[in-house]
TrEMBL record:
It comes from the Bacteria. GO terms for molecular function: FMN binding; riboflavin reductase (NADPH) activity. Residues 23-169 form the Flavin reductase like domain. It comes from Mumia zhuanghuii. This is Flavin reductase. Keywords: Oxidoreductase. InterPro entries: Flavin_Rdtase-like_dom (IPR002563), NADH-dep_flavin_reductase (IPR050268), Split_barrel_FMN-bd (IPR012349). The keyword Oxidoreductase applies. The keyword Transcription does not apply.
Length: 171
């Protein structure tokens, strides 16, 4: 067996899409967006998002159109954006679907149900939002626009970001 220092299926640097390479150099917060309750809970790691201040404040997400989360984000439906800290790094890949989660992703971490969806007890911060308009295709992902209805800030903790294919602890 060979151990690779890089992912064995990633094209060599010179053959990669320049736009994806540029995007990979833009540090992004690592979040897990969740919706539903009980057996209908769903979640997805999302790093492409913007929070826009205003009255009302809005959150814009780029979500994989084939994800279970995308299927649940209809107009007026609530969801949660859980901002991960460094201590929650182990949740990012299972919720992205790139690492195993025996028994399901919600067995990882401690979760509590809110009117917006599941909230990670150790999240650095979280917001509850409601989908404002029908999600639409922008490139390959769906653009989800939602109105922010609730915000909670957790205890001060190092933030987790994603840059150039790696998680980085900003603490």
């Amino acid at each position: 067996m060979t151990i690779h220092s890089d992912h064995p299926f990633v094209p060599p640097e010179g053959e990669r899409d320049p736009l994806r390479r540029l995007r990979g150099r833009l540090p992004q917060a690592v979040t897990v967006c969740t919706a539903g309750e009980g057996r209908s809970r769903t979640g997805l790691t999302v790093s492409s998002l913007v929070v826009a201040d205003g009255d009302p404040a809005r959150v814009l997400l780029l979500v994989d159109e084939d994800s279970d989360l995308a299927a649940s984000l209809e107009v007026e439906e609530p969801f949660v954006v859980n901002v991960l800290g460094a201590r929650d790094r182990s949740l990012a890949d299972p919720f992205a679907g790139t690492a195993p989660a025996p028994g399901g992703v919600f067995r990882l971490g401690a979760w509590r149900q809110t009117p917006y969806g599941p909230v990670l007890e150790t999240a650095v911060a979280w917001l509850g939002a409601r989908v404002a308009v029908e999600p639409r295709q922008v490139g390959w992902p769906l653009l989800v626009e939602a109105v922010v209805e609730h915000v909670e800030i957790g205890p001060e903790a190092p933030a987790l970001t994603h840059v150039r294919g790696r998680y980085v602890d900003l603490g």
